[in-house]
Amino acid sequence: MSFQALADHALSLPGATQDVKWGADWVASVGAKMFFVAGPHPGPFTGCSFKVDEHRFLELTGLPGLKPAPYAARYHWVAVENAKALPLSELKALVTRSHELVAGKLPKKKRVELGI
């Protein structure tokens, strides 16, 4: 499994768009709000981060290969440093949940516009 597989999955979610922020981070957003970050860009991704439910934050950051995301931990973002830290299916589910958490905070009009 690679971080690229997670980035591809993130981009397949409803209303997802991509861009590069801070010069070297590939970002997937929904409604102009980030829900998945991988980097460095360009080149093979060496890590990624995404938002998680508050009640899962401590559980996930206690696992080997995962840690609180720099600058975003207070918003319950987790950084994945090892692509084998969790099975691909679970990582994809976490990215999907990140998308849901962020999309759920968008105004109803924007969600309808995006088909969410």
Automatic annotation (TrEMBL):
<dbReference type="InterPro" id="IPR038056">
    <property type="entry name" value="YjbR-like_sf"/>
</dbReference>
<dbReference type="GO" id="GO:0003677">
    <property type="term" value="F:DNA binding"/>
</dbReference>
<keyword id="KW-0238">DNA-binding</keyword>
<dbReference type="InterPro" id="IPR058532">
    <property type="entry name" value="YjbR/MT2646/Rv2570-like"/>
</dbReference>
<dbReference type="Pfam" id="PF04237">
    <property type="entry name" value="YjbR"/>
</dbReference>
<protein>
    <submittedName>
        <fullName>DNA-binding protein (MmcQ/YjbR family)</fullName>
    </submittedName>
</protein>
<dbReference type="InterPro" id="IPR007351">
    <property type="entry name" value="YjbR"/>
</dbReference>
